[in-house]
Amino acid sequence: MTDARQPPEIGLDEAYGVETPEDNRRLYAAWADSYEASFVANKRYVYHRHVADILAEHFAGRSGVVLDVGCGTGIVGVELRRRGVSQIDGIDISPEMLRQAAKKTDAMGRVYRRLIEADLTKPIADASGRYAGIISVGTFTHGHLGPEALSHALPLAAPGAVCAIGINSAHFADRGFERHLDELHRSGKIGRYRLIDTLIYEGAAGDHPDDVGRVAVFTIRRNDVGEPPDAVIHHR
Q: Which residues contact 44 (CB under 8 A, 6 or more apart)?
């Protein structure tokens, strides 16, 4: 007999099926408490570690605050702190997920300096160009944000900021992310970008074991001193 008190199982099919910001809010309100146990651990999700590696590699020697776009429960912030990135803010559409992120601590204290509730399908009101880095994992995927949301996130970064944006590879192709990145480069908003493909799951786990994340790595263009040199990207 099914215990009526147990919440229904939530997985990628439900996540990929959402269509509107309100759908996202409802999904993650129901998923926030169990997300890390039912999804991250059970499905052997490792994408956040790979993207954190990439951002940390290119952020080495820099200082300033990194913004975690679509931070969810804060698993990316935890991985960044383990890799030496000390100052992190998070932004997400779900207040329930943000409450989970607010609980994340390590030896240095709270993982996130500041947490912001915002809908990235719309321009962000306080886009002041202050972040030294931007990372995003699991947000640019089916049912979630398309390439237009990049144009809302990038004004939050300072000139020269390092960005590592994870995008589900099928979503990357279906939604025309490459065209959008090309246009951002042609318009002088970003430097030349590189793409890295990495597995989202460890081994043949999960309902979508062959899902691949395509990570776009680039810098915000320094219009005053010319384009920064291209980063050296190691395929994984």
A: 201, 202, 203, 205, 206
